[in-house]
Specification:
- This protein has about 260 residues and is of the alpha/beta class.
- The protein has 2 domains: about 80 residues, Ubiquitin-like (UB roll); about 160 residues, no CATH class.
- Helices cover about 25% and strands about 20% of the residues.
- The chain contains 8 helices and 14 strands.
- Helix 2 crosses helix 5.
Length: about 260
Amino acid sequence: MASIEIEIRVHAELNDFLPTARRRRPFHQALNRRASVKDLIESLGVPHPEVNVIVVDGVSVGFDHPLDPAEGVPRRLDIYPWSQTPALVRVHHLRPRPERPPRWVLDVHLGRLAGYLRLLGFDCRYRNDLDDATLAACSAEEGRVLLTRDRRLLMRRCITLGHYVRATAPRHQLEEVCTVFDLFDAFAPFTRCSHCNGPLGPVPKAEIVERLAPLTRRHVRHFLRCRDCDRLYWHGSHLPRMRELVASLSRPPRGPLPSG
């Protein structure tokens, strides 16, 4: 059976998916059967939604580009994340850009992150009982960016919009997502329920006064109510936490992603 050695270079943050010995340096991979570029890339451990540009021997190609050892090519494969675009190559972009502002669906491990994103006004589908097939279908059918800590889930063929969350601490996860997707100008605090994702709207105090504790009834005038789950919000209790959250987030200079 024919076999070829391909020189591979994985760029920037995509190195996170490689064994340490292969990171940030060219390495060689044997190919002894016909395969698509997508199959080869994911055999390295890199989920395809993380990839934006693929260059084979200086030519930008798509995921379905065939690699055939019988043809004796290619000699070099470069794989770029969506944060980088190679120079001197007419680029065929692979990763579609999410809508602005993005809408999200999050796996079962990212409940705290979902709550933070909702507090900032982002539309987040999250439940702690959604299985992988449902998450993938939601992302594909609704155009939502899938956020996950499960690399295999992100490799499902139907998913085009997704991000593997590197950080483990929820606040660091929020910083990472805001940085990767440049969300800093899209914050809309107090517009979405952090509990159920429903939209918030003003409600007259007279309509909900019987639900209020005595001190709240006495001192707070303006309230918001979730149109879906009926939960109440008011600035007296929630505004300081929201101000602290927004103040902690700012567009950082280009650099490594935050780690857990």
